[in-house]
Amino acid sequence: MASASAPEVVVVFDFDRTIIDWDSDDWVITKLGAADAFQRLRPTMRWNPLMDRMMAELHARGKTPEDIRDCLRSAPLDTHVVSAVKTAAALGCDLKVVSDANTFFIETVLAHHGVLGCFSEIVTNPASVDADGRLRISPFHDPASAPHGCSLCPDNMCKGKILGRIQATGSDKKRRRRFIYIGDGKGDYCPSLKLGEGDHVMARENYPLWHLICDNKQLLKAEVHPWNSGEELEKTLLKLAGEVISPPAQASQFDYSKCEMSNPASCPPSCAALITDQLLVRKY
Ligand SMILES: [Mg+2]
Ligand SMILES: [Zn+2]
């Protein structure tokens, strides 16, 4: 347990391809047989309204919100990630999810694996079931209000703005706080830029966030740590959280030479396939 004088550790998780090793939107649409409609509509719609539209497609095909829940429950969650979440919560870290998926998908998955209660907050696009029994997905950022004004992020959500709000509204103002942000995607870059010295970004290696960080190394104040699997995520998160709570004599430095080593052109075929797959399903 953390001592009263140790900094509070706030761990912010992205959801798709971070907590889960898959993409929840992609999983539901593909498994419930609406990939054809997705492919047809994708060129004409932005991601967030497209997901609401896809829920209408599923409803028209007789799929209920309970079918969607069952579909999400059938997807795997790495046992190392479950253990990382439980252990970090037990250490006294404040865990949050900031995601461009939606409340229905995220809460279903986390509850199914018994870790929903480990998170103090889930910040994502709102979802609800309407009178017709159709799942509706709304943008996190109210389209009726002024645009959020961040050119890095999609219209419906700026994760950097969300992180700024979390940074500004600490539970205990007297206690220092250290942030650990874990993500993989383009949308995770904006919040990474908002972190300060002493904070940490855990970027999934060879995914868009990692490449953006490597391309603009000097822009980040936080320390960067790569991870490749649930096992590495667990190991790195618990090491960092432990170091914040009981600092070692000297913190290890991120080896930026790994950025050069992770150039997609030099990847083995399996790695290159992963990157191609990622680009196809990327949300924005
Ligand atoms: Mg992600
Ligand atoms: Zn932003």
UniProtKB/TrEMBL annotation:
Cross-referenced InterPro entries: HAD-like_sf, HAD_hydro_PyrdxlP_Pase-like, HAD_sf, Pase_PHOSPHO-typ
Keyword Lipoprotein attached: no
Residues of the active site: 14 (nucleophile), 16 (proton donor)
Keyword Metal-binding tagged: yes
Keywords: Hydrolase, Magnesium, Metal-binding
Cofactor: Mg(2+)
Binding of substrate, residues: 25, 100
Molecular-function GO term, any one: metal ion binding
Binding site for Mg(2+): 14, 16, 184
Protein name: Phosphoethanolamine/phosphocholine phosphatase
Gene (UniProt): LOC100281893
